[in-house]
Amino acid sequence: MLPQELVKKIRQIQIYTSRAVDASFAGQYESVFKGRGMQFDEVREYTPGDDIRTIDWNVTARTGKPYIKRFVEEREMTVIFAVDLSASGAFGTVSKTKNELAAEFCAVLAFAAAKNNDKVGLLIFTDRIELYIPPKKGGTHVLRLIRELLYFQMPQRKTDIPQAVDYLARVTRKKATIFMVSDFIETGFKRSLSLLNKHHDVIAVSVRDPAEISMPGIGLVELVDAETGEIVLIDTSSTGFKNQYRQAGSERFNELKNMLKSIKIDCINITTDKPYINDLIQFFHMRHRRF
């Protein structure tokens, strides 16, 4: 039996996403993610007007008559959400935490994928693999993924993106679109993410809170690192500290964007203080222009 609070939260997400994933949004999703190309259908005898580049020379030589390979567009797509739910995601200074934002963001795209008849899977990770649900179709399956994301009891753990990437590479044989959702505080995952992107379409989703971008001046504050437990006392009213903090946050995010760009991975930036639908639509438009 699910707690009443969780049932209410899932219902709220259902209502929100049903409004967000309207015909226009779903159409934009379909126009960007059209499936993974062409798949073999049959071999048939050549008829005048067929493209000679499709001739199957092995069958032609064996039968003495020209035959061609026929391909059809593969419409079905596999979408996997790899979601970092480590301790740093429990942070949030607005209406929700980063982990709650990540769950809602995945819900919107998962419902869009379901409308497009795509398979959807989920990987929840911290510094270990917490849960893996193989891709399947259907609204009931999507609701299960959302429930797992919201119901996940977050341990006090760090993040290990390379481990999650290696796991995905082992279990995902068919080419998939993989949304890597994290605050990307960790470093050292460039090589593993680059290798995964050679076989799949990897999209990074950077989840941040405004207090990680600019610290409000509220005097002396004791900060605790959620992943290491380290405690630091800082003076947030100090102009020098605020400037240094803002610059460090900006540099860290720019380094992430530049690194992802260097390995040809797109990045969607979402924050807990703004609606993310506009960011998604802008991403769709960018991809549509490119392809």
Overview in brief:
With 291 residues, this protein is an alpha/beta fold.
Q: Which outline best applies? A: elongated
User: What pattern of helices and strands is seen along the backbone?
Assistant: HHEHEEHEEHHEHEHEEHEH
Low-confidence stretches: none
Indicate the CATH topology of the largest domain. Rossmann fold
Number of alpha- plus pi-helical segments: 10
Reported CATH architecture of the largest domain = 3-Layer(aba) Sandwich
Question: What is the CATH domain class of the largest domain?
Answer: Alpha Beta
Going across the biggest sheet, name each strand in turn: 5-4-3-6-7-10
> Gap between N and C termini, in Å?
46 Å
Protein structure class: alpha/beta
Notes on the protein architecture:
This protein has 291 residues and is of the alpha/beta class. The protein has 2 domains: 4-32 and 75-290, von Willebrand factor, type A domain (Rossmann fold, 3-Layer(aba) Sandwich); 38-73, no CATH class. The chain is built from 10 helices and 10 strands. The strands form 3 sheets. The chain has a 6-stranded mixed beta sheet, sandwiched between helices. Strands 1-2 form a two-stranded antiparallel ribbon. Strands 8-9 form a two-stranded antiparallel ribbon. A hairpin with a 3-residue loop joins strand 4 and strand 5 (129-136). The longest helix is centred in the last third of the chain and has 24 residues, at 239-262. The N and C termini lie far apart (46 Å).
